[in-house]
TrEMBL record:
EC number: 5.1.1.1
Gene of this entry: alr
Binding residues annotated for substrate, in chain numbering: 139, 312
Organism listed in the record: Luteolibacter ambystomatis
Enzyme class: isomerase
Protein known as: Alanine racemase
Active site location: 41 (proton acceptor), 263 (proton acceptor)
Entry-linked NCBIfam families: alr
Metabolic or biological pathway, per its Swiss-Prot or TrEMBL entry: Amino-acid biosynthesis; D-alanine biosynthesis; D-alanine from L-alanine: step 1/1
Its job: Catalyzes the interconversion of L-alanine and D-alanine. May also act on other amino acids.
This protein's UniProt keywords: Isomerase, Pyridoxal phosphate
Cellular component terms per the entry's GO annotation: cytosol
Domain Alanine racemase C-terminal: 242-367
Amino acid sequence: MSVSVAASPPRAWAEVDLSALRHNLGVAREACGCHLMPVVKAGAYGHGLEEIARALEGEGIEFFGVANVGEARRIRHAGVKTRIYLLGATWSEERAEIVAQDWTPCLSSINEALHFNELAADAGVRLKVHISVDTGMGRGGFVAADLPGHMAELESLEHLIIEGLGSHLPSADEDREFTLAQFAKFESVLAELGGERFQWRHLSSSAGLLGYDNHACNLVRPGLLLYGVSPLPGFQERLRTVMSLKSRITLVRTLPAGHGVSYGRDYITDRPTKVATIGIGYGDGYTRHLSNKGTEVWIRGQRCPLLGRVSMDQIMVDVTALPEVAEGDEVELFGAHIPVAEIAKKAGTIPWEIFTGITPRVTRVHRS
Ligand SMILES: *Cc1c(COP(=O)(O)O)cnc(C)c1O
């Protein structure tokens, strides 16, 4: 007889609204008129890789962008058939599987191209690949000025089909002038090589697709905006919140004036204070960098200030302003009322890092 152990109800969970995700995909599509490669690396930015891939599969997309073969495998095991594109340079040990599965790498070097060509020859197939060109990111790709000199050799590799040219923007949300120059550089590389030889031409992630003219491209690679956050001002109101990070109050007490709260006693009450203890902490990805930064949480329709330091599993907030507050009350750490961008700013980081920092202890609850 097997003994069943009841699952502990989660103290912290992340609600993921799949209809908001699909709405945001529509915004991406309308904003640039390009084909779409939703980026689902890092567990779809912490939103749940399999669930997000399944939710987007039928939405007329061309590729999913992933970081490595482990993520590609998970998408396939979830039964999703959409083509898979590997966003960065590949590790040599990953390549045989990429060829066998017909996933699409982007090539940054002749060595990679030669190896893929050899593996494809061994497998008796022709592998579709994209060429990555470095127009300023400095992370991968053929340096733009060098690529034309390599093109003949790349095209001589009979087991590769060069079907795309891609590049990446490092400062689309910070430096318009540089980014415009990058678009121009990408266009001139296309002109020099003959753009029509590439079925897919892509440069933009979220900021590039929202804020710039993508006429030189026919594919975009949005990540963050699908998850409801605009990296550029002026577009946020078009997007819908996808993830809400939530927890519950586990305890409500009134502390007298002069009482310390949390490790280090950074916060000392200056009056009798009603303090709620909440079941989430940095062990869940609610980062400790939020301590003593004026961070707020949302309870019963109001903002309530975080008190003292975030601990591993618990935080304390001031709920003196909430007469009806009770144990079990739901708390939003970020979501529709507390924007994740606000939390990221207070923590001295970016929304991408907040999303991907949510740990496995946090149950993801998907709603369609
Ligand atoms: C992560 C990534 C993206 C998506 O970027 P967002 O800013 O989240 O839209 C697009 N392209 C590449 C190459 C990436 O690494």
